[in-house]
Amino acid sequence: MQFLIIGRDGPDADAPARRQLARPAHIEGLKARRAAGEVVEVGALLDDAGSPIGSAMIGEFPDRAAADAYVAQEPYTTAGVWVTVEVTPLRLLTWQ
Q1: Residues 6+ apart with CB under 8 A from 42
Q2: What pLDDT sits at residue 96?
């Protein structure tokens, strides 16, 4: 089952530093999950100046519980980068 996961960074002044510190673990985790077939697409959400303010991911998980478990252990969650996370079931269009 596919899910759209949107994590929004904190608005505080320390949020960019938390993101930078957690980024290597975040990227390594994404690489492993992409190899396992769980990550379909991923990218940073940007403000008008082009600075990261969050993340968006389309993931493939067996169910909502598995998607929630991913979010709970995600380095951006555990490091306090994401202050809100939205997990929504999704069905991507199949191009014929």
Answers
A1: 30, 55, 56, 57, 58
A2: 81
C-alpha to C-alpha distance for 68 and 18, rounded to whole angstroms: 22
- DSSP designation for 47: -
Q: How many CB atoms lie within 10 A of CB 96?
A: 3
How many Å apart are CA 50 and CA 2, to the nearest integer?
Answer: 28
Structural element, H or E, at residue 96: none
**Per-residue pLDDT tens digits for 15-51:** 999 999 999 999 999 999 999 999 999 999 999 999 9
C-alpha neighbours within 13 Å on the C-beta side of residue 91: 1
C-alpha to C-alpha distances, 23 to 1, 52, 75, 81, 86, nearest whole angstrom: 26, 12, 8, 10, 20
pTM for this entry = 0.92
Q: Which H or E run contains 26?
A: helix 15-35
- Measured CA to CA, the distance from residue 53 to residue 82 in angstroms comes to 9
